[in-house]
Amino acid sequence: MMSFWKDKRVWIVGASSGIGEGLVYSLAKSGAKLLLSSRNENRLLEIVKSLSASDIGVIPLDIGDHRQLNNLTQQAWETYSGLDVVFLNAGISVRDRVVDTEVEVEKKLMDVNFWGPVIISKKLLQLKTDQGQLHLVVTSSLSGKYGVPKLASYAASKHALHGYFESLRAETHGNGLFIHLAIPGFVRTDITVNGLNGDGSVNGKMQQALAKGMDPLTCAQGILVEVEKGKEEFVVGGMERHTVWLSRLFPGVMKKMIRSNPVQKLEKWKQYFLKKNGPKPLSDQN
Ligand SMILES: NC(=O)c1ccc[n+]([C@@H]2O[C@H](COP(=O)([O-])OP(=O)(O)OC[C@H]3O[C@@H](n4cnc5c(N)ncnc54)[C@H](OP(=O)(O)O)[C@@H]3O)[C@@H](O)[C@H]2O)c1
């Protein structure tokens, strides 16, 4: 399975924790040459230290600070004389009602979740030769597929990624650019702990659904398998992953379901199906 990654030059943006950190640990054993980025340089260096991999480097970067992104993308490209796979995984969340969320906070989220990946991708398109192959793996979310209460700007940023990168995929078809939209379900990371409230203060709490979610390493491994298969869009998660087809096939049902307490409703369904079909293997239970 892992031979796909051998000697691949891989840049992970948003590598210091959660799913991105899981990608690092999974890829460190695959023979890929790794480059890790995010704001927390010390944490990235700790991760590097914990691994015995030889081809691994760090480029500290704030994806919300757009002035530096062209130069840092160039630096990432030059580190291994080109890149084969770039994970655009950095992201933050804002959780609050629209009326309680300041526009400046929403703009900050868009700068990180949407504009950052766009600016890096534009630079990569300039650097990529016509013959070269490049995989962009963009981390979206279930709320990139449908809107969710208290996640308006987060959902908007993830929907925007779909619109932008689907268009880019169509424009560049046959040019060696492969765009993968990864949709994690509920994953047990600090995204909501580090997430912001509508007034810009840090939330500090882990959302219950995430606390019961898939572990980030399993999610990362799931993402790698789907990229390797060449999937353009895929969901990695537990029971909640079914909401994607549900929202497409039965939009009315889904709209009603997410109006109030969608997570509790999902939990009820989960219990119902578990009772009906007996316990699932551990990998399916998250
Ligand atoms: N957890 C879930 O259930 C879930 C579900 C769907 C989608 N996602 C998406 O998965 C991605 C990874 O999130 P996670 O759940 O693994 O959360 P996480 O543990 O909080 O990881 C977020 C990563 O993004 C980086 N980051 C945040 N702001 C940044 C900035 N301004 N510049 C550079 N890097 C930045 C963080 O590093 P630094 O703090 O070091 O900068 C960290 O490495 C996000 O795009 C998120 O929207 C998560």
Automatic annotation (TrEMBL):
GO terms for cellular component: membrane. One of its GO terms (molecular function) is oxidoreductase activity. Keywords: Oxidoreductase. The keyword Oxidoreductase applies. Pfam families: adh_short. It comes from the Bacteria. The keyword Transferase does not apply. InterPro entries: NAD(P)-bd_dom_sf, Sc_DH/Rdtase_CS, SDR_fam. PANTHER family: DEHYDROGENASE/REDUCTASE SDR FAMILY MEMBER 7B (PTHR44196), DEHYDROGENASE_REDUCTASE SDR FAMILY MEMBER 7B (PTHR44196:SF1). Belongs to the short-chain dehydrogenases/reductases (SDR) family. This is Short-subunit dehydrogenase. It comes from Algoriphagus aquaeductus. The lineage of its organism: Bacteria, Pseudomonadati, Bacteroidota, Cytophagia, Cytophagales.
